[in-house]
């Protein structure tokens, strides 16, 4: 009887150690503000779409580098940063590629060679372009500006995004850019959908439907709810337009 009890205690202790080791090994995603952080949204959404279990860590909003990134004053972005299995990945496209290898069943990147190339191309275009849109329509999930006047510089970026969306949706039949499931490209353009919603940007019917599809995703709704619960942090991005 005593021997059986002793064995049970050892098994329980071993399970606790194993459980603790597993919990310590859980991935950690460092993000900036949910209200203003478009790059953080991309990394966070990629992790959600991949089905990766992770803990959130928030970068200090008073840190000068974090504020520079949120205000688009930095040439490099160190958030989001995914720490997993002893490595750190802080570029959004690199996070997507890593998660695609780690969780291939999530199909973050299309398997078809042609679709895969197009997905990477438009994701890369979003990653490095559309600077006029970023500066003219800063991300702000809590705000809403009906009838907002979009000036010519940002309008050209919007037109290009609509072209990308239309071509992808026509080829895939939607509702996402590459078919029935959201992928890397959808995560890359999700902050754009948030911006279009905030600033009441008028789109053609197909693009408006896509925008609504992205905004209705459970993960997007979770992010927006988190943004609404954040205290206002950056007065520079909360001006009255």
Describe this structure in words.
A hairpin with a 2-residue loop joins β3 (81-84) and β4 (87-89). A 4-stranded mixed β-sheet has the order 2-1-3-4, with helices on one face. It has helices at residues 2-24, 38-50, 64-70, 92-102, 113-128, 131-136, 152-172, 184-198, 205-216, 218-228; strands at residues 27-31, 54-58, 81-84, 87-89. The chain has 241 residues and is α+β, with helices and mostly antiparallel strands.
**Helix content class:** 55-70%
- Count of DSSP strands: 4
- Overall 3D geometry? globular
What is the overall number of helices? Answer: 10
Percent of residues in β-strands = 5-15%
Which secondary-structure class do the elements indicate? alpha+beta
Rg, Å, rounded:
21 Å
Multimer state: single chain
SSE ordering: HEHEHEEHHHHHHH
Report strand order across the widest sheet. 2-1-3-4
Mean pLDDT: 86
Low-pLDDT stretches? 3-7, 18-24
Sketch the major β-sheet: 4 strands, mixed
First CA to last CA: what distance?
Answer: 76 Å
């Amino acid at each position: 009887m005593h021997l059986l009890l002793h064995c049970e205690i050892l098994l329980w202790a071993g399970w606790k150690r194993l459980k603790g080791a597993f919990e310590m090994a859980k991935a950690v995603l460092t993000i900036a503000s949910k209200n203003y952080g478009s790059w953080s949204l991309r990394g966070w959404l990629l992790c959600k779409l991949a089905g990766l279990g992770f803990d959130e860590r928030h970068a200090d909003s008073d840190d000068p580098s974090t504020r520079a990134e949120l205000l688009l004053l930095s040439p490099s972005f160190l958030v989001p940063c995914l720490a997993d299995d002893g490595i750190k990945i802080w570029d959004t496209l690199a996070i997507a590629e890593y998660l695609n290898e780690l969780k291939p069943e999530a199909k973050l990147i299309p398997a078809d060679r042609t679709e895969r190339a197009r997905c990477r191309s438009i994701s890369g275009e979003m990653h490095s372009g559309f600077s006029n849109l970023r500066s003219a329509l800063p991300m702000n999930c809590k705000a809403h500006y009906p009838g907002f006047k979009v000036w010519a510089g940002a309008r050209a970026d919007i037109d290009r995004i609509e072209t990308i969306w239309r071509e992808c949706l026509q080829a895939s039949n939607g509702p996402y850019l590459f078919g029935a499931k959201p992928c890397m490209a959808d995560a890359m353009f999700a902050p754009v959908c948030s911006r279009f919603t905030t600033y009441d940007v008028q789109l053609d019917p197909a693009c408006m439907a896509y925008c609504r599809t992205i905004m209705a995703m459970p993960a997007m709704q979770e992010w927006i709810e988190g943004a609404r619960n954040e205290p206002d942090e950056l007065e520079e991005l909360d001006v009255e337009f």
